[in-house]
Amino acid sequence: MGMGKLSYEECRQRRLEENKKRLDELNLVHLSRSLQNLSPKSSPMKKVNPKPRAAEKEWVAVRRSARVANNPAPVYVQVKAPRLETPRKNYGVFKGRGLWNRVYASEEARAYALEKAEQLVSEKLDFRYPTLIRSMLPSHVTGGFWLGLPREFCRNSMPRRDEMITLVDEEGDEYPTVWLARKNGLSGGWKGFAVTHGLVDGDAVVFQVIKHGVLKVYIIRANDKSSKET
């Protein structure tokens, strides 16, 4: 064991001495020291051409004709031009009464129409079908032409969703209208029905649901009272 250890150490020592001699012959030690002493060269900077400075704006007096040179400078005001309305074609849209020619019913005439409507329902109409009596107001037959119906009647007898409802008058003519379930009322198409039948404030209108989406309509005129009295 001791002899093997000494021989190994001797071999190792010889190799170190040989390597040192080779380094001295190659002069690598001095070369590495000289490289460490050299400072790194900085990369050459690019030359940047300065941008030409923009020429400063100069305010120059506006040249004016000698004829108006002494007059004050004009002041311009923006004026909104009137909008030109092009005539629209009439595609079967009914022109109803405006607010200027509304007809207002008296309390006696309104009560008379309601009484006749209740008499019609009790004596002539089939009680098995849901029925509603609606006294016309100015908002129903002029201006907005919106007909709202009682919530209880709508909940029990009208569709739960928006759809088309057909109004059938006493002559059998049909008028499609738009039913808005959330608002409980008739919208588009009701104006055409009201204007065609000349509905005015105070008239009593009877609606009877004869089947899903179809209402039979009966009209009792409020002005019938005044005409009969005369």
Short description:
The chain has 230 residues and is α+β, with helices and mostly antiparallel strands. The chain has 7 helices and 7 strands.
Question: What does this protein look like?
Answer:
By secondary structure, the chain is an alpha+beta fold. The protein has seven helices and seven strands; from the N terminus they run αααβαβαβββαββα. A seven-stranded mixed sheet has the order 1-6-7-3-4-5-2. β4 and β5 form a beta hairpin.
List keywords for this structure.
about 230 residues; alpha+beta; elongated
Q: How far is the N terminus from the C terminus?
A: 152 Å
Please, how many helices? 7
Strand order of the largest sheet: 1-6-7-3-4-5-2
Q: Bin the helical content.
A: 25-40%
Q: Give the biggest sheet.
A: 7 strands, mixed
Q: What number is the mean pLDDT?
A: 78
Identify the overall geometry: elongated
**Structure class:** alpha+beta
Give the tally of β-strands: 7
